[in-house]
Design goal:
Strand 3 (102-103) and strand 4 form a beta hairpin. The chain has one domain (4-175). The model has no long low-confidence stretch (mean pLDDT 89). The N and C termini lie far apart (36 Å). It is built from four helices and five strands; from the N terminus they run H-H-H-E-E-E-E-E-H. With 176 residues, it is an alpha+beta fold. The chain binds zinc ion (ZN).
Length: 176
C-alpha cells in the first residue's frame, strides 16, 4: 500500500476492503501537491463509486476514533469571500468558521459572516502522510473527469462531516 495507515479502516463496518484499496491507489497516483487539496468528488467520479460510499469513506478516514493517533485525513474548510470571491481563510474544524462579521482584506471589499455563506466554504482533505513509492509498480492513470467542488451548502457533506462527527462526540460523552 502507498499509505499503510489506511490498513486501520479496511475492516470498518461501513466500508469494504476494495474501496479502501482504490482510495490508496488513487491517492498514490496523484502528485504530492494534490495531497494538500483532495477533492472527494473527484475520487467519487474518477473511481465511479456511489456518492454515499465515497463520502462515508472520507468521513471514516477523517475520524480520529478509527485510528491510533492522528486520523488519516484532515478536513480543510477553505472560506472564500462571497463578494469578491477571493480566498479569505482556511479552517481545520467546522466549529472554527466565524459566525460573526469578518472583514475581507481585499481592497474596496466589505465584511461578511462566513458561516452564513456555506456555498463559499469549500471542503477539501489533506493527508499527513506521504506515500511510500513502490518503484516497481506502474502507476495507474485515471481518466480525469470534470467535477464540481464540495461545499458546506451540500446537505450530504454536512451530514457526513458535521452531524456524524457531532454524533460521535455525543456518543463518547455518554460512554464516560
Ligand atoms: Zn472580498
Amino acid at each position: 500500500m502507498y499509505f499503510p495507515k489506511l490498513e486501520d479502516i479496511k475492516i470498518h463496518d461501513e466500508l469494504n476492503e476494495y474501496t479502501v484499496k482504490r482510495l490508496d491507489e488513487w491517492l498514490g497516483s496523484k502528485p504530492t501537491r494534490y495531497l494538500e487539496y483532495i477533492n472527494p468528488l473527484e475520487f467519487i467520479t474518477e473511481i465511479n463509486i456511489s456518492r454515499e460510499l465515497g463520502l462515508t469513506l472520507f468521513s471514516v478516514a477523517a475520524d480520529e476514533n478509527n485510528f491510533e493517533g492522528d486520523p488519516f485525513f484532515q478536513i480543510k474548510y477553505i472560506v472564500n469571500c462571497p463578494h469578491c470571491k477571493e480566498h479569505f481563510k482556511t479552517y481545520y474544524s467546522n466549529e472554527d468558521i466565524p459566525t460573526s462579521f469578518v472583514e475581507c482584506e481585499e481592497e474596496g471589499c466589505s465584511s461578511f459572516i462566513p458561516a452564513e455563506h456555506p456555498e463559499r466554504v469549500y471542503i477539501f482533505f489533506k493527508t499527513k502522510e506521504r506515500p511510500i513509492v513502490k518503484k516497481s509498480k506502474e502507476k495507474k492513470v485515471y481518466k480525469k473527469a470534470p467535477t464540481g467542488y464540495l461545499t458546506r451548502a451540500d446537505e450530504d457533506a454536512r451530514e457526513h462531516f458535521e452531524f456524524r462527527r457531532r454524533y460521535w462526540k455525543y456518543e463518547e460523552e455518554k460512554d464516560k
